[in-house]
Design a protein that fits this description.
The protein has 268 residues and is α/β, with parallel strands linked by helices. It folds into two domains: 2-121 and 237-265, Rossmann fold; 127-234, 2-Layer Sandwich (Dihydrodipicolinate Reductase, domain 2). It contains nine helices and twelve strands. It has helices spanning 12-23, 45-49, 78-91, 104-111, 127-143, 166-178, 183-186, 238-251, 261-265; strands at 2-7, 27-33, 58-59, 71-74, 94-97, 118-121, 149-156, 187-188, 203-209, 215-223, 226-234, 257-259. Helix 1 (12-23) crosses helix 8 (238-251) and helix 5 (127-143) runs parallel beside helix 6. The longest helix is centred in the middle third of the chain and has 17 residues, at 127-143. The two termini are 26 Å apart. The protein binds nicotinamide-adenine-dinucleotide (NAD). Nicotinamide-adenine-dinucleotide (NAD) binds at residues 7-8, 10-14, 33-36, 75-77, 80, 98-101, 122-125, 240. Nicotinamide-adenine-dinucleotide binds at residues 7-8, 10-14, 33-36, 75-77, 80, 98-101, 122-125, 240.
């Protein structure tokens, strides 16, 4: 049985994760952490998530539950996640990290824990998106150097704070890697004014923020005469939460290292 604690338990993903842990076999809800000083500290996390009292109360520090959990699931914000990594390294805990929007410096900091913490870090935990990454690899290899323009379009709810989404960037990286291109050099993240025509090798990104869209990604391969679109649409956060719980159960048996969902799902 994997004992799971959820940081950011009052957030959109946090509440969904409580539900997902409840529904999972071989996993138990061992704790929930809210922001320091939050008035939700002391609340039953089952009640917070709308699944009814579970007898586990939210706390506002990891120290308070250090002996209770094996794996910490963290969908919060970059700085919070990095602080939690330091805690997990110190206390021999494993982590599943869904937080997106890290800067290059923050990603380097995260990576520096790969020898100290067994972690799964993925910008999208859904099985469907991770399969889509494989499809994109195949499509890019077949089309990318044959005159097909590649564009990534993503849509999310109005509250999302980072852009483009971590998933869109990951899709761009997978495509760029498949084609021997560097996303830092060939990614185009903004087009405004007299920006001139598109170049052959660029990989373009467009972002939509509106309403309650859970997460949609389309990658377009377009040339004269035809267009192929590979689309993934998430209709509920449960798909990410289920993937995260699957990752938590998997990482519980792993040595220190930085893993992703392709490792968890055996898609490498
Ligand atoms: P949210 O704002 O609803 O939730 C974040 C929660 O973290 C909030 O409740 C906040 O109070 C809490 N928090 C902040 N600082 C804290 C601290 N020091 N200690 C404990 N809790 C703290 O956001 P969300 O929509 O749930 O998304 C959270 C993150 O997860 C974002 O980066 C988002 O992009 C990412 N995300 C990833 C996936 C994936 O599959 N990897 C899926 C959805 C969202």
């Amino acid at each position: 049985m994997t004992r799971i604690a959820i940081v950011g338990v009052a957030g959109r993903m946090g509440r969904t994760l409580v539900n997902a842990v409840e529904q999972a076999a071989e996993a138990t809800l061992a704790g929930g952490i809210v922001e320091p000083g939050s008035s939700l500290a002391g609340a039953d996390i089952g009640e917070l998530a709308g699944v009814g009292k579970r007898g586990v109360v939210a706390v506002d520090s990891l120290e308070a539950i250090v002996d209770d959990f094996d794996v910490l699931i963290d969908f919060t914000a970059p700085k919070v996640t990095l602080a939690n990594l330091a805690f997990c390294a110190q206390h021999g805990k494993r982590m599943v990290i869904g937080t997106t929007g890290m800067s290059d410096d923050e990603l380097n900091q995260l990576d520096s824990y790969r020898d100290k913490v067994a972690m799964v870090f993925a910008p999208n935990m859904s099985v469907g998106v991770n399969l889509t990454l494989k499809l994109l690899q195949t499509a890019a290899q077949a089309l990318g150097d044959e005159g097909y323009d590649i564009e990534v379009i993503e849509s999310h709810h109005r509250h999302k704070v980072d852009a483009p989404s971590g998933t869109a960037i990951k899709m761009g990286e997978v495509i760029a890697d498949s084609l021997g291109r560097n996303l830092k050099e060939h990614g185009v993240f903004e087009r405004v004014g007299q920006c001139g025509p598109r170049t052959d090798k660029e990989i373009g990104f467009a972002t939509v923020r509106a309403g309650d869209i859970v997460g949609e990604h389309t990658v377009m391969f377009a040339t004269e005469g035809e267009r192929i679109e590979i689309t993934h649409k998430a209709s509920s956060r449960m798909t990410f939460a289920k993937g995260a719980v699957r990752a938590a159960r998997w990482v519980a048996g792993q040595e220190s290292g930085r893993y992703d969902m392709q490792d968890v799902l055996g898609l490498e």
